[in-house]
Amino acid sequence: MAITILGIESSCDDTSAAVIRDTLLLSNVMASQEVHRVYGGVVPELASRAHQQNIVPVIVRALQLANVEKEEIDAIAFTRGPGLLGSLLVGASFAKGLALSLMRPLIEVNHLTGHVLSHFVRLPEDDTEPPRFPFLSLLVSGGHTQILQVNDPLHYVILGQTIDDAVGEAFDKGAKIMGLGYPGGPVVDKWAKEGNPLAFKFAKPRIEGLDFSFSGIKTSLLYFLRDQLADNPQFIEHHLADLCASWQLHLIDILTDKLIKAVKETGITRITLAGGVSANSGLRTRMQTEAKQRGWELFLPPIRFTTDNAAMIAVAGYFKYKEGLTCELDVAPVSRAGEMSK
Ligand code: KG4
Ligand code: ZN
Prior knowledge:
Blueprint: E1 4-9, E2 14-21, E3 24-32, H1 44-66, E4 75-81, H2 85-102, E5 106-110, H3 111-117, E6 135-140, E7 145-152, E8 155-161, H4 167-177, H5 184-192, H6 215-231, H7 235-266, E9 270-274, H8 281-294, E10 297-299, H9 310-322
Parallel strand pairs: 1-4, 4-5, 6-9, 9-10
Antiparallel strand pairs: 1-2, 2-3, 6-7, 7-8
Bound molecules: 5'-O-[(R)-(carboxyoxy)(hydroxy)phosphoryl]adenosine and zinc ion.
5'-O-[(R)-(carboxyoxy)(hydroxy)phosphoryl]adenosine is lined by residues 12, 141-143, 168, 171-172, 183-186, 189, 275-277, 279-280, 307-308.
């Protein structure tokens, strides 16, 4: 018998609900929050309030589009964390209420596991196979930068991670320093296409092993621009495309160096990308080039599954459901990854 799962994601500034039948996606509805744009970043209080406004219509729409009655749902999967606590509480509370009223099991999902498993969401028109295990996942988002060895859907080892900022923050903060809008990643990506990536060079962070650091290089960009602006107040306007292209290449180089190292250390050549930054066109092209040269089997997520979405939460919930991994109704959201299981 096919299993129908409703997934709910509300960890940051997107309210999303999805319905899957086994791993086949029936609907994936998203309400993004424009309210944060003018503040240059997500304002937690406003995010919680917008989730509260969006959650019911988003879930009703997801069920309608899937052509599924709520009584047909076998289980409800929700993002327990990591994320903004006030945002998570909205999705978690709704999931609990629905689980209780329908008398269906509740499944807590780690947001990071969701990103990693986004490759397993099947679309009706899909004729590609998901990655086989084990594989390496380069998880790059606004909150996380990790290289994971994924041994099966529910077991992975973190081989390396950022010790400070995430790479998405480096994109966003770099964009902010250059006076571009929020979120900066897509804007930098757009400008970078017009520029010369070799125009400016930035120093690489010296971090041992497979860990990352992005906070120091952000400061070095700030000082570099401060010095240039002292000579030419229009420096940024005159060189915007080259600056974006060079900054983007710098970040891509840092990610690629560590990934190559992880492949060498593990001997695993099956590579997946996940998270918002995996939408970056420069990173995708670079990964394709590296994969071709090095004989990697590469899996790039469809763009719409790179940023936060409930389809990935539903599919992670599906794998947990199959293992009987449901949770109690007294489960509480957590803001940090270390506070919960996979
Ligand atoms: O996965 P995500 O939606 O949320 C988190 O879990 O953090 O990732 C959001 C991040 C933001 O930092 C955003 O700037 C970045 O993903 N991003 C990009 C691109 N699209 C989104 N960064 C670089 N290039 C892009 N095209
Ligand atoms: Zn995310």
